Amino acid sequence: MPRTADRQHTGRQRNEEARRAILDAAVHQFAERPAAEVTVATIAAEAGVGRQTIYRWWPTKFAILLEAMTELGRAVVAVPDSGSLAADLEAFVTATFSAVKEPTISLLRVVMGEAQRDPQVHRLMVEFTGRRRAVLREVLERAEARGEPLGPGGADLLVDQVFGVLWYRILLGNGPLTPSAARELAEALLAQTRALPWPASERTPRPGKC
């Protein structure tokens, strides 16, 4: 029995080490060479695994990269819960902006560009961004449940505005993603939450939440 337990533990550890090596290799390769030169084979070679190992876990090289980006997001952008919308919103936006630096900016541009051409990558990108949006939505809906107003557009508009600014600046590089920029955005959005409601006739129906 002890030997069986040892073998099971070793197997799980080996799989996790291989997965981590693959994610690290993908990030390194996409950061160092054009996306067209990165293949499952080159990632496998750097990670020291076989291609079939990769294909058991991911359908494409971009799926590997997006999982690596997802793990980074989870590690550096927690779900704030201070009991105050103002504090939580600033904490979330600041952590999100701070997480986006090189080589992450270049990697996200690569994947977003590919998502415009490849429907499968587009689907993966929607899932990737949806997970980050869901975290902010949780923060906002918790505040609303406490009785704090979310403003005329509600959670939908606030989520769109945070990630709209984020992605606009990632893709075009036309503005900073600094702590002070995050604070300014959070303060502007907080002021918006205190605005008077729009007339019902001016509200745009939303087909669904993501």
From TrEMBL:
<dbReference type="GO" id="GO:0000976">
    <property type="term" value="F:transcription cis-regulatory region binding"/>
</dbReference>
<feature type="DNA-binding region" description="H-T-H motif">
    <location>
        <begin position="39"/>
        <end position="58"/>
    </location>
</feature>
<dbReference type="InterPro" id="IPR036271">
    <property type="entry name" value="Tet_transcr_reg_TetR-rel_C_sf"/>
</dbReference>
<dbReference type="InterPro" id="IPR050109">
    <property type="entry name" value="HTH-type_TetR-like_transc_reg"/>
</dbReference>
<dbReference type="InterPro" id="IPR009057">
    <property type="entry name" value="Homeodomain-like_sf"/>
</dbReference>
<keyword id="KW-0238">DNA-binding</keyword>
<keyword id="KW-0804">Transcription</keyword>
<dbReference type="GO" id="GO:0003700">
    <property type="term" value="F:DNA-binding transcription factor activity"/>
</dbReference>
<dbReference type="Pfam" id="PF16859">
    <property type="entry name" value="TetR_C_11"/>
</dbReference>
<keyword id="KW-0805">Transcription regulation</keyword>
<protein>
    <submittedName>
        <fullName>TetR family transcriptional regulator</fullName>
    </submittedName>
</protein>
<dbReference type="Pfam" id="PF00440">
    <property type="entry name" value="TetR_N"/>
</dbReference>
<dbReference type="InterPro" id="IPR011075">
    <property type="entry name" value="TetR_C"/>
</dbReference>
<feature type="domain" description="HTH tetR-type">
    <location>
        <begin position="16"/>
        <end position="76"/>
    </location>
</feature>
<dbReference type="InterPro" id="IPR001647">
    <property type="entry name" value="HTH_TetR"/>
</dbReference>
